[in-house]
Specification:
heterodimer; A: alpha/beta; four-stranded antiparallel beta sheet; 14 strands; globular; B: alpha/beta; eight-stranded mixed beta sheet; 30% helix; 23% strand
Chain lengths: 343, 322
């Protein structure tokens, strides 16, 4: 499934005939900070939150890529930019070969149908007054799809069957409060699938769910992926990403610091940040108890990005050059890419 | 042998429901906590773990009623209601509530809030209270100079530390922490777990960790109490629970948790959902979701010892024993 590889120049190259569905290149998302009256009068320099600061990655049909990182690393902003919920400041987002960044609302509308999103919290993303039938049918109405009432009903049933809420009759007339967390998230996924998207952006799809049902929702996403759906998963849970994603991109302060096949990234992490993150993930086995590499402090704010390698203030291996020179994402000896001067 | 530090015995909690009826949230939970010991209360949402924690602290809402015994060093603190629990609350037992880091008073500095708690308990006033606040903040890894900060000026991890400092104000023997790391990032979670570990070691604190996260319990606790439908399904040393679970629920819960050390293993969810607790349960509450259920499971299995300080409520364990 490894159809793309990133060269030293930061451009995506197709290494097989399979066309990348989504190609994000040098994406930059910034949120300006209002200066306020005092700031304006004093002519204070305009500041911005550098949420996403030049990242590139690709996603093919039938592939699941996980963007992993701590809060504030820019993973959600990346997802929102792909959805065009925020406007990127620079870079391109090519979807099926078309750059989404320049498109107006009208031109975007038919494409939006093909990129759907599943949110973190199904307790909030579903309208409590809508029955399951209405919740799943609403996207069809918005996009004026599905034809007659019976046809729409049929599509709703199919979507419910695809998310394994079977038989659909059992769920159609229920309200969200009558469903468990896992069932609610399945309804949210059905409402995304009813438009027959080719790309699904899932922002922390299981973090609000009980452990006992998480695996079920993830397996569902896995089987949808196997049916050809491309999935961009945003998560802070490395165990989940390692188990279900094909590729993992680890983000830190708006940059991808390591990217590669999920198993490789987890088994032989190259970047000190990835290593530290992996080392502190609690293991199920009490005999595997270890403190790990607990980094001090928290991710610095994305307004004042550190010079050189942005990870250097927290890096246990940082040396002088790291304060000055910024590493680029480049292939490592083990194959996948990392952005570290030590490699 | 002296009495255990904390002993919960046949604890029941009922909530009055609007429009009549009762929800039997905790149905005869019992466990003990020795001095300096760390016990993890684990289970899915709605299994009664938080309610158990609140009942121990005597902090249930007015719509709830409790029965059973909560023995603190052999003295039943639940027996006389508020009058018997009040002298011990925060003094001997303290709790860090779920989401405590977001419940700090936003218009008061962190230091002021701790000073207030100290003054309320008569543990010093004015400069003495401020000095003690500095100590408390330092003990949880917050530089005492930050006492003058407002909650919004601190990161999530720092606010959680402040909430822990506040709970430690009166030097309790037992700290109950309800989902202390749930909303935090992996690295901050590691920092907080490291802190709890250090506090237990240095202050000899006994810890009740309430969480749905089995790996967190595996890393931090000595023993674990696995709850299901308001009851104890299994309890014992964490090592034994992972390597030799006796209750199918424990085994399935571990199997549903992805693990970095086991990328090939199947991650399987548990079908179905926990039973409703607003009606009486018949038989084993886990029977509808259990992969090993058999005809005897229509009779409720008692929680019985299964050796090595463990107990489980499953008919299969008795089959194996006899």
């Amino acid at each position: 499934m490894d159809t793309l590889s990133l060269t030293r120049h930061g451009a995506w190259h197709q290494t097989s005939l399979m066309k990348a569905l989504l190609e994000v290149e040098d994406l930059v998302v910034r949120y300006p900070i209002p200066r306020g009256i005092v700031g304006t009068v004093k002519r204070a320099p305009a500041q911005a939150v550098h949420a996403v600061d030049g990242i590139s990655f690709g996603l093919a049909a039938g592939e699941m890529v996980a963007l992993v990182g701590e809060s504030g690393c820019g993973k959600t902003s990346t997802a929102q930019a792909v959805m065009r919920l925020v406007d990127p400041e620079a870079g391109s987002i090519r979807f099926e070969g078309r750059d989404l960044t320049g498109l107006g609302v009208r031109a975007l509308r038919p494409l939006r149908r093909r990129i759907q999103m599943v949110y973190q919290d199904p307790y909030e993303s579903l309208d409590p007054r809508f029955r399951v039938r209405q919740a799943v049918e609403e996207p069809l109405a918005i996009h004026r799809l599905g034809g007659s009432r019976t046809e729409r009903e049929e599509r709703v049933r199919e979507a419910l069957e695809r998310v394994e809420l079977t038989p659909p009759e059992l769920f159609l007339e229920r309200y969200p409060h009558e469903l468990s967390g896992g069932q609610r998230q399945r309804v949210a996924i059905a409402a995304a699938l009813v438009l027959e998207p080719v790309l699904l952006v899932a922002d922390e799809p299981v973090s609000m769910l009980d452990v006992s049902v998480r695996a079920g929702v993830l397996s569902l996403l896995d089987s949808l992926k196997r049916q050809g759906l491309a999935i961009l998963m945003i998560t802070h849970d490395l165990s989940t990403a390692a188990r279900f994603a094909d590729r993992i991109a680890v983000m830190y302060l708006g940059r991808i610091v390591e990217e590669g096949p999920a198993v490789d990234v987890v088994r032989s992490p190259q970047h000190p940040y990835t290593r530290a993150l992996l080392s502190v993930v609690p293991r199920r086995d009490p005999r595997e108890r270890h403190t790990g590499q607990v980094l001090r402090g928290e991710t610095p704010d994305a307004v004042h990005i550190p010079s050189g390698c942005r990870f250097h203030p927290r890096c246990p291996l940082a040396f002088d050059t790291c304060r000055v020179e910024e590493p680029t994402l480049a292939p490592t000896p083990v194959g996948h890419d990392a952005a570290c001067l030590l490699i | 042998m002296s009495a255990p530090l904390l002993q919960v015995d046949d604890l029941h909690v009922w909530f009055d429901l609007q429009g009549g009826g009762e929800l039997h949230a905790v149905q005869g939970v019992g466990f003990t906590l020795e001095r300096g010991e760390r016990v993890g209360l684990v289970g899915e949402s709605g299994c009664g773990k938080t309610t158990t924690a609140l009942a121990i602290m005597g902090l249930l809402p007015p719509t709830a009623s409790a029965a059973g015994r909560v023995l603190l060093e052999g003295v039943d603190v639940l027996a006389g209601g508020e009058s018997t629990i009040r002298p011990h609350r925060w003094v001997d037992m303290a709790i860090v509530f779920q989401g405590a880091m977001n419940a700090l008073n936003p218009v008061q500095t962190v230091g002021k809030q701790i000073v207030e708690a100290l003054e309320l308990h008569g543990l010093g006033h004015g400069s003495a209270a401020r000095a003690r606040t500095g100590e408390l903040l330092e003990s949880v890894g917050i530089p005492s100079a930050r006492a003058g900060r407002f909650p919004h000026e601190l990161s999530g991890g720092m606010r959680q530390r402040a909430a822990i400092a506040m709970a430690l104000a009166c030097n309790p023997k037992v700290l109950i922490a309800d989902e202390p790391t749930t909303a935090l990032d992996v690295m901050v979670q590691a920092q907080i777990l490291e802190l709890l570990d250090a506090l237990c070691r240095e202050l000899g604190l006994a810890l009740v960790l309430v969480t749905h996260d089995l790996p967190v319990v595996a890393q931090l606790c000595d023993r674990s109490v696995v709850m299901y439908a308001g009851r104890v399904a299994e309890q014992g040393p964490v090592d034994a629970l992972y390597h030799d679970p006796r209750h199918p629920y424990t085994r399935l819960l571990f199997a549903a948790t992805p693990d970095l050390d086991d990328l090939e293993g199947r991650v399987v969810s548990i079908p179905g959902a926990p039973p409703r607790l607003d009606r009486p349960l018949a038989g084993c509450p886990f029977r509808p979701r259990c992969d090993r259920a058999f005809d005897r499971c229509t009779v409720e299995p008692p929680l019985v010892p299964v050796g090595h300080g463990r107990s489980a409520a499953c008919h299969l364990t008795q089959v194996a024993v006899t």
